Hints:
Blueprint: E1 2-5, H1 11-19, E2 23-25, H2 32-38, E3 44-47, E4 64-67, H3 77-83, E5 86-88, H4 95-111, H5 113-123, H6 125-130, E6 142-146, H7 150-162, E7 166-170, E8 182-183, H8 186-192, E9 195-198, H9 212-217, E10 223-226, H10 235-243, E11 249-252, E12 272-274, H11 283-301, H12 315-325
Parallel strand pairs: 1-2, 1-3, 3-4, 4-5, 6-7, 6-9, 7-8, 9-10, 10-11, 11-12
Helix pairs in contact: 1-11, 4-7
Amino acid sequence: xxxxxxxxxxxxxxxxxxxxxxxxxxxxxxxxxxxxxxxxxxxxxxxxxxxxxxxxxxxxxxxxxxxxxxxxxxxxxxxxxxxxxxxxxxxxxxxxxxxxxxxxxxxxxxxxxxxxxxxxxxxxxxxxxxxxxxxxxxxxxxxxxxxxxxxxxxxxxxxxxxxxxxxxxxxxxxxxxxxxxxxxxxxxxxxxxxxxxxxxxxxxxxxxxxxxxxxxxxxxxxxxxxxxxxxxxxxxxxxxxxxxxxxxxxxxxxxxxxxxxxxxxxxxxxxxxxxxxxxxxxxxxxxxxxxxxxxxxxxxxxxxxxxxxxxxxxxxxxxxxxxxxxxxxxxxxxxx
Length: 336
């Protein structure tokens, strides 16, 4: 079978696919039309960029869409479900990387590392040391986490056990929170936290969940850390809060439109820390995501259920789609 790659992957991914006897397809060009052409003959796709919403109208053989990462907002999941295409992701593969990145954001904010480095080079030793007058410690501070899944749980562990921070957490189901996380509703979490970390998926329920009223509850010294998705935050409300200095600042790794435009107003603010959607990218995490994504593709193309099943309600339709394309379903001999 043929497996399409929207972007380059680690060698381990290609090796697993080839050892299973699959042909690898790569895009010719960029943009939605290139993605449609890429998937025209593919039975599976490994996803690292946004797929066109109408992809299934151009991919008659597609059986699987596997996210090389966690957020499945890059995949038209509803259309996949309607067509019997199985969707999977690789949760947890980059949890350590993202959690450590959030810690790096907090430390950079607390200790003014980047500013101190720039001052040292530009103005000398004394000017750089003066930055330490505003430095703070993480010990004893309160961290609020919106989305206590694999990433949020790992971050909570590091913060509570490593830095002795107080950790508040919010998620839809408060049962089963880690023992070092105290549940808080969103108004209280935003009001009491020195750092608010966003680690939730982008869904209809979370789009714009960080609203003007919640931002208004934050301490004037508190920082918002977003490694989730840009649209989780009301962009206009955040810009207003930053410009008026109603909050300490924002460390953002994701944006409403990516890449961040050269004239975006965030670039003119001095109370932001901006990075280019790299929280989950380390040598270790990229290899692990490539490995798990490839294994999920091989599993699905064998006719088995994926381990990290996003749309299990599509299973019956997926079996019908396999039969219509001449492929065996689980426990059946191939009709070919």
